[in-house]
Amino acid sequence: MELVKKLVVSIQFDADEMEVGELVSDGRLIYFRYYPAFIKRGLEISPFKLKLNNEVNTANEAPFDGLFGVFADSLPDGWGRLLLDRALAAKGISVGDITPLDRLAFVGINGMGALIYRPEMPVERAAEFKIELDEIAGATRQIISGAVTDVLDELFNLGGSSGGARPKILVGYNAQTGHLMGNEKLLPAGYEHWLIKFPSHTDSPDIAHIELAYHKMALDAGLEMSEARLFEGKSGRAYFGTKRFDRQGNYRRHLHSAAGILHDNFRMSALDYGHLMDCAFILEKDARAYEKILRLAAFNVFANNRDDHSKNVSFLMDDRGAWRLAPAYDLTFSWSSHGMHSTMVAGESANPGKQHLLKLADYFKMKNAGALLDEVQSVVKNWNRYASDCGVSQSSKNEIQNVINQK
User: How far apart are CA 392 and CA 290, in angstroms?
Assistant: First the structure.
């Protein structure tokens, strides 16, 4: 396979596609330069690490293999990367030869957010692929175990541009008919862009019910979240799905993770919620941004979501250049592999509690922070009610409640 040496980056919010600039690789470094016409628009797609300028820009090798974070955010991570690697290997293409620009070319027009990469280099896709959730769940288990399935290309098309470690697919969903269709750039009337998750081999059988209970609990705790529900396969097995917040109908929003915007290596992060509060305030230009991050931190602490890394916090920009914190996502009970929260709370990651949250709020001179924390904790203490409403098993219900009671 001939390696990609140049990509034109565009951004598309609605029908009009605007060329942003170009990425060029000399085999050693990756260079990016904004086009003058885009600079005149004044849209800062990455206002910290890649501000609008007339220079030829290069990023450090770390943490994104020579890419700026705004482009690295378009790359599939975890499950999506695995799908792409398996799809390429099945075609006899050496994964070790694939460059970051090659990967962006495979993302093409189908990435999360509003950025587009041309020329596109799509993995071949079958003309028709019927979405049956149980079959896809089975195929994901085969792929994770190393087997090549006969639906590999279709799975890549459905989930190859999604981030996160758990298997997932991007679909069009019609709430009136219940019909699911493949992930298309433009969906027919009546369809919305959704994301459906499948359990990994380490997840409990009721992981979808647990995540839905956390979703409802987070809403009552005052967090903004996108619509969510359970989807059932023919077997009756449930899968967690959520409406994509980077799409509104066929209108696209520019998406930038905290990891990407701050150039944070989320796998070895030294980030604190205080950094996220600073970032949100600078982007939103509103002191209420502090409260949004504090509320998120409180929920993750009290509900024991330790997988709170910087890829799990994002920001959205509209076509006028206005930024806001994206709805919360990937909120669920979790034990991190190292026994700590991925993001620190006032310097504490092993066992943060209310005293650390208050210290964080005090640093930012937030008034009535104690009331906010009490509100969030009182909601989380009612875990059993949310769990019962969402069909969580008794064993999972008890395990999570025991942890929550220690907070």
Answer: 33
